[in-house]
Amino acid sequence: MYSIKPVHAAMATLTISIGLVTTNTAAFSPQSEEKTAPDPRLIASAALPGYTHSIEVVGSYAYVGYRGGMRIFDIRKPASPIALGTLETGRYVNEIKIVGGTAYLAGSFNGLQIADVKNPLNPTLIGSYGDIGEVTGIDVVGTTVYTSGGGYGLTTFDVSDPTSPKLLGKRDMQQSAPYVQIVGTTAFVSDRRTGLVAFDVRETKHARDLSSTRTADEAFGFEVQGNYAYIGDQDSGLTIMNVSEPRWPEYITTFELPGFAYSVDVVGTKVYVADSDAGIYVIDVTDPTQPRMVDHVDTPDRAFEICVVGRYGYVADGHNGLQVIDFSATAHPQSHTITDSHAQLNTHSN
Predict the structure, then answer these.
(1) pTM (two decimals)
(2) CA angle, corner 166, sides to 154 and 70, nearest 5?
(3) Segment 10-25, tens digit of pLDDT
(4) Distances (CA, A) of 84 to 75, 81, 101, 157
(5) Which residues on neighbouring strands pair with residue 234, listed in sequence order?
(6) Domains in the chain, please, with CATH?
């Protein structure tokens, strides 16, 4: 799918440099740590038949997407996940949203796929809509599904009957659009060329341009919480924007990370960044203008997505399947100082 840096072995010695940059010019403050053994906070691992790429945790279950399908795990005992049912799709499952007993899947070149997961031992495909190019991101609001991807950008569906999704509208974008999130009447979409794009979706059939704001690199997975968007910004790290006014988003800062910042999970004042071959980084954003690293857990392969529930993190980790992290014994590395290089990022509104 996307170009990712070469993976390092979990047992290898690795020096990682971490810094902060407040604009798209890297003002780098090196720190280093050596990894000589797997982190003891990795308390469980479960293999998948294909390359693991996505995860969603709801209640007692983890829904894990891989190249070929989705597998459901019972995680009532996080240290001993139990594999339950499997849904075979034949393609990558790039993102998963669970609403009630229904799973909505960004099914790569299979398009939108919908599964009944009321019985976790026997998930069943009940609906789909193809011919919309590659689907990589998905969000669900009521009976409306929004997808993003490489073919048509932002696409909207009526799923009041999940067995027969109906196409409502399409909005082409400049390049592939990895993720989408709906906040009120605004659709935020990451665009690898443009950055973070906002649309007014009050009319589901006609998404209307609001703004397009550059990020430091190529925007991938992101999450909007409160007034801020926290963006996995490819090789640059974690980018933070103020999106309280979607017409005029304000670039705040980028916290530089060593890997490929693929996606994020925001829990309270912490952002958990799935940083591909560099593992999971935990960034304190109590003050979004002054982010600081508070933890790092290396994973055996490439961390693509993380869901954090309580003290546990559940990671889709490439060739190493599902990884479970117990953050309860969190270390507290030295904080970092932001350096302002006074460079500019371009923002425009429509």
Answers:
(1) 0.85
(2) 70
(3) 323 233 334 444 333 3
(4) 10, 9, 15, 30
(5) 261
(6) 40-345 (2.130.10.10)
